[in-house]
Design brief:
CATH class: Mainly Alpha
Number of helices: 10
Strand content: under 5%
Bound molecules: fe (ii) ion
CATH architecture: Orthogonal Bundle
Shape: globular
CATH topology: Hypothetical protein af1432
Helix content: 40-55%
Order of helices and strands: HHHHHHHHHH
Largest sheet: none
Length: about 200
């Protein structure tokens, strides 16, 4: 069998859907490498800054690693702007949707909200509310998102910084996307890990 027999989903039988499930599992194994390729595509996006979006992503993740952050934080940081490619108006939510099945809830939440939190650094210059983050005041991950933006995101536009290459992070990305999706032992709802060691 190399393709299903049906032309409308309602007509498929168990053999068809067993075949498709196997195909999907094989396709899923390539997710990490497709994301790494998409990250490299960010090199062509958004001019005007002193570094590309790829450079920014790598620099943010390099800072996370040098802060002693764990794998979930490093991969979340590497991919936090991956949504810029297809979702310029909600790139944070888009990235979070990709990461949610495979990362700790804390990291996914921070990626999802980082756009609101980043405004404190420039909202006043673009007619947006710099304090938009206050909509999340009291949330258990509020301080984590503030720290993420302060130490890793807003600081990582420096062409002189000693940034690590994509190849340095590839195995971590593959490890994360090889996890069992939505595994409670990975999601660890409500738990927090530090972003840096003081
Ligand atoms: Fe962003
Ligand atoms: Fe960013």
């Amino acid at each position: 069998m190399h393709q299903v027999k049906f032309t409308a989903m309602a007509d498929g039988d168990k053999e068809d859907y067993d075949f498709l499930t196997a195909q999907e599992i094989a396709h899923t194994r390539g997710t990490a490498d497709r994301l790494l390729a998409a990250l490299v595509e960010l090199d062509e996006g958004l001019s005007g800054y002193q570094i590309t979006r790829l450079g920014h992503s790598l620099q943010s993740a390099t800072r996370a690693e040098r802060d002693g952050a764990d794998t979930d934080w490093i991969v979340a940081t590497l991919l936090h702007d991956i949504g810029d490619i297809y979702a310029p108006y909600n790139h944070d939510e888009y990235a979070a949707a990709i990461l949610r099945p495979f990362l700790r809830e804390q990291c996914t939440w921070v990626v999802e909200k980082h756009g609101d939190f980043q405004l404190v650094y420039y909202g006043q210059h673009v007619g947006a509310d710099p304090e938009k983050r206050q909509a999340h005041a009291g949330h258990r991950y509020f301080d984590d998102c503030a720290t993420f933006c302060a130490r890793w995101d807003q600081a990582s536009f420096d062409p002189a910084y000693d940034t690590l290459p994509v190849s340095h992070f590839a195995d971590r990305v593959r490890e994360v996307f090889a996890r069992t999706p939505y595994d409670p032992g990975v999601i660890r709802a409500g738990e927090r890990e530090p972003l840096y060691r003081a």
